[in-house]
Amino acid sequence: MSTAYPTSSTACCPAGNIIYLTEAETKRLKVLERRYREKARLQITARVQFYIAQMKQSPLEGICTSYSTLSIRDQKSRWGSCSSRGTLSFNYRLIFAPPGVLDYVVVHELCHLTHMNHSKDFWHLVAYIMPEYKQYKNWLRDHGQELNLPEYLRRHGIDITL
Ligand SMILES: [Zn+2]
């Protein structure tokens, strides 16, 4: 018995980029995934709190920092989102990214609490909170597809197959 597990986190996964796993291997991967999701929840919540504290101290006026819910998901094509009701969602796969990249997505979504668009004002706010954000934004564009559990394990020399 085998299960296809796409190694790409984007919807446009190249056809050849699939590894086949046995049932036992799939189970093992699911257990690991749960652990990394929990780790992601803790880390992302901590960074949200960190940046909210920073934004509250900024001299900028009209900055909104209140959100209703924080959810950690496994969206196929998004790293984060912010709804008009103030729900912040983050992709758990960010836990596999360099810390600055995870922070960038946190800052990006927090800035949407003030500006629900990608206007100049929005990007000014992002740059104010995180002046070096562009390097992380570009990193995510170039390497986002590598952020997934099998790839992470492979990079650390942990074999997925049993
Ligand atoms: Zn956005």
Question: What does this entry look like structurally?
Answer:
A hairpin with a 4-residue loop joins strand 4 and strand 5. 48% of the residues lie in helices and 14% in strands. With 162 residues, the protein is an alpha+beta fold. The protein is elongated and about 55 Å long. Helix 2 crosses helix 3. The protein contains 5 helices and 5 strands, in the order ββαβββαααα. The site of zinc ion has 3 residues, from helix 2.
What's the structural blueprint in terms of helices and strands?
Elements: E1 2-6, E2 18-22, H1 23-57, E3 69-73, E4 80-82, E5 87-91, H2 99-112, H3 120-129, H4 133-143, H5 149-155
Parallel strand pairs: 3-5
Antiparallel strand pairs: 1-2, 4-5
The chain binds zinc ion.
Spatial separation of the terminal alpha carbons: 14 Å
How many helix segments?
5
| Gyration radius over CA | 17 Å
* Low-confidence blocks of residues: 1-16
Q: Compute the average pLDDT.
A: 87
Strand percentage, roughly? 5-15%
| CATH architecture call of the domain at 39-147 | 2-Layer Sandwich
| Secondary structure category | alpha+beta
Q: What is the CATH class designation of the domain at 39-147?
A: Alpha Beta
Name given to the CATH homologous superfamily of the domain at 39-147: Metalloproteases ("zincins"), catalytic domain
Overall shape: elongated
